[in-house]
Amino acid sequence: MDKSLWLLMLACALGTFLLRALPLIWMRRHLVRRSISNSNEAMPVWLTVLAPTMIAAMFGVSLVPAHPGISSWLATVLGGLCTILVWRRTRSLGWPVCIGVAVYGVIVVVLS
Amino acid sequence: MSSVEAAKRSAWQQGARDALPLLGGYIPVAISFGLIAVQSGFSALETVLISALIYAGASQFLFIAMVASGAPLLLVLVMTLLINARHLVYGPNIAPYLSNSRWWPVLMHGLTDQIFALAHTRLPQLAEKDRMGWYISAALIAWGSWIIGTAVGAVAGAEITSRWPLLGEVMPFALPALFLVLLAPRFTSVQWSLTMLVTIVAALMLKLMGMTNSAIPLAALSGVALFYLVQAKLKAEGKIHG
User: Which of A93, B55, B64, B96 has its CA 20 to 30 A from that of B125?
Assistant: First the structure.
């Protein structure tokens, strides 16, 4: 990369970092200004709704397999079902994900 | 070992344990990024530095594609930041759970989509003194796996993808599985369940329509709009107050 590309990369890195850090600093100041005991009440409601919907949107986007086809969609549905069933039993993070990936992998391998 | 040290160690261990499922999604994508970046003319060192410093998957792919195609540098910068603009809402949402330490803003470099999703669920469950240890541990695992995956992809990506073609297809399912586990406890009422379902379907449809980069913010905003619509309807029917 020449000098201009290095500068571009650093600008992208700095800009991305600021997008992550500045809103936090702003919200901390906002919370201090409000200085109320229950800080959740100082959060704008739309922001507290937007957070779970962002996660739901990430889930929706990530559901699309890298190579969409009948086998990968079937694997997605069954892998998801197994994930949720294991979660209902364990209420943990790790095992449901491991079992979900294993089921997804077995179905993709068997049907491919 | 004192109980304080034990609690501190357990917070770090908990962070590492919680971040492990991310590896299944991060490493295959990072290997792909490393491979594509090298094939686009970047050196292995440059590729790794892009992953370490920008550290935002979708925008990194766009960055190398636009640079390789000779796009104007200012346009590359604007597009990169536009794609990453969704990160604006992450910090404020976890702010109530963070101490006043001046290190927190610096640590936001590690606040990716997935770390945010994890932190938004886990931080409220942890004691205040454990939160920074948990976050650093989880964020470092994710960041480290992204950098190492990129380096592996840059050096040996072509060989890996030809030898284990299914690896890149199966492991990324760890991400939807993780998001599903994080979302499941939020289906607590008709209003939230409807909001979540509509957002998920909207994001899925937008992605299938090829709107990969705008799918997340558009679907999330449609979910918020629906949330308020349902709330207004419930208020009108007298089922909720306020």
Answer: B55
Residues B14 and B125 in one domain: yes
The alpha carbons of chain B give a radius of gyration, in whole angstroms, of 20
Per-residue pLDDT tens digits of chain B, which is 242 residues long? 455 555 556 999 999 999 998 888 888 889 989 988 998 899 999 999 999 999 998 889 889 888 888 889 999 999 899 889 889 999 999 999 999 899 999 999 999 999 999 999 999 999 999 999 999 999 999 999 999 999 999 999 888 888 887 777 887 888 899 889 889 988 989 999 999 999 999 999 999 999 877 888 899 999 999 999 999 998 888 876 65
Closest residue in chain B to residue A105, using alpha carbons only: B170
**Rounded Cα gap, residues B219 and B212, in angstroms:** 11
In chain B, how many domains are there? Answer: 2
CA dist., res. A48 & res. A97, Å (int): 26
Chains A, B: CB contacts within 8 A come to 268
Residue B179 maps to a domain: no
Q: Do B66 and B163 belong to one domain?
A: yes
Within-domain flag for B176 = no
What lies within 8 Å, CB to CB, of A112 at 6+ separation is A71, B166
**pTM check: above 0.90:** no
Summarised one tens digit per residue, pLDDT across range A10-43 is: 999 999 999 999 999 999 988 888 765 555 566 7
Token pair for B211: 């709107």
Q: Are B136 and B66 part of one and the same domain?
A: yes
Q: Are residues B218 and B144 in the same domain?
A: no
Amino acid at B88: L
The boundaries of the domain holding residue B80 are 3-171
Q: Are A72 and B145 in contact (CB under 8 A)?
A: no
- Mark yes or no for CB contact B195/A79 under 8 Å: no
Judgement on whether residues B158 and B230 belong to the same structural domain of the protein: no
CB neighbours of residue A11 within 10 Å: 16
